[in-house]
Amino acid sequence: MGRKWNNIKEKKASKDANTSRIYAKFGREIYVAAKQGEPDPESNRTLKVVLERAKTYNVPKAIIDRALEKAKGNSDETYDELRYEGFGPNGSMVIVDALTNNVNRTASEVRAAFSKNGGSMGVSGSVAYMFDATAVIGLEGKSAEEVLEILMEAEVDVRDIIEEDDAVIIYAEPDQFHAVQAAFKNVGITEFTVAELTMLPQTYVTLPEDAQAQFEKMIDALEDLEDVQHVYHNVDFGE
C-alpha cells in the first residue's frame, strides 16, 4: 500500500521549494479552510488538517499567519473547489484537485496540461472510483509494533502500518486523521514526517521508460498550475 511516502514528499518539497509555489498553494488552502468555518484550528477540523500538513512541509509561520489574518479580515475573495479526472499514456489515471477564482481559466489550463503531454480529460467519476480517500500519517523513532500498541491503547483502528526506511507510515480512514495524531500526541509524539489526506489508487501501473518520462512531464505541468492544489495518480515510479 502506498509508494515510499517519505521519498515522494521529499522529492516534491525539493521541487516546489525552488519556486516557493508550495507556500503559495498552502496559503490559498489555509485561507479557504479558514473562511469556510472559524479561523481557529481547534474548532475548524478542516483548517486543522491543512495546518498539520503545512507543518510537515515546513511552511513558514509568516505564510500561515498571513493567510489566517486575511481570512479574519474583510476579504471577499472566493474560490471554487474543483476536481478533474483524466488519463495519461498506457491507461494511467490522474485526479487533479484545484482551488480557483476563475473556473474557465482553470479548466482550460488543466485540459491543456493533459493534451500537450499525451493525456486526455475524462468525465466526472471516470477515474475517482479507482482511488480511495486515505489519511496517511508518518513518524520516526518507533517500530511498527510500538506504533500498533499505541493505537490499540487509544482504541484507534487503522487500515495498515508499514515500516518504510527509517519511518513508520500509518494508513487510515480520512475521518481517523485527528484520532491517529491524538493517539501519538498523548504519548508525547508531536512531530510527523507525513500528515496527508490523499487519494490512493487501488492498483498501480508501471509504464515503459518513454511513457513514464512523458507522464512525469504531464504531472509536472499540472502541479505547476497556480490553481492546482493536489495531483494524484496510479503510476509506480519505483520510488
From TrEMBL:
InterPro entries: Integrase-like_N, TACO1_YebC-like_2nd/3rd_dom, TACO1_YebC_N, Transcrip_reg_TACO1-like, Transcrip_reg_TACO1-like_dom3, Transcrip_reg_TACO1_YeeN, YebC-like. Residues 3-74 form the TACO1/YebC-like N-terminal domain. One of its GO terms (molecular function) is DNA binding. Residues 79-235 form the TACO1/YebC-like second and third domain. Keywords: Cytoplasm, DNA-binding, Transcription, Transcription regulation. It is found in: Cytoplasm. Belongs to the TACO1 family. YeeN subfamily. This is Probable transcriptional regulatory protein J2Z20_000925. It comes from Paenibacillus sediminis.
